Amino acid sequence: MSVKSIIIFFLVGVIVILGGILVFSNIQNKPSSNIIQNQSLLQPKLLVSEEEWDFGKVTQGEKPTHIFMVKNEGEGDLVITGVKGCCACIEVSISSNLIKPGESAELKVSYDTTDYVGKDEKHVFIYSNDPQVPDKRISLYVETEVFQIPLPQIPYLKD
Predict the structure, then answer these.
(1) 26 is in which domain, residue-wise?
(2) What are the tens digits of pLDDT across the range 38-59?
């Protein structure tokens, strides 16, 4: 046998051995990758009872409140990482940051109309681990009116 034949035979042998190792390692890792894939299929799904809310007509200075239901319609745990109003006039709180599949939490939203007059639109944001909607927006509407006290009518007296 020539030196050239020995080198080719050696290289073919190394390639066959490395191929066998690669195939064997893929077979061993296959079940654990299936487990990871199955766990990733258990995803949460955030659903809000209303995507918008109209508080209607209110008197300036009132703080109308509405409670939204936030439900997890997915198969994995829904983690609420934050709830936030678009400005300081919106107060937001949620009853639970962890919502199990099929369960719900209350999202309480209050709108302080002290500094507003007329029609207004604001937004609330819910941040979560929902892969489809990681930042859910809820629209809020209000029409604020100034409360006016009617002046008393004084009858005109003739002399």
Answers:
(1) 1-41
(2) 455 789 999 999 999 999 999 9
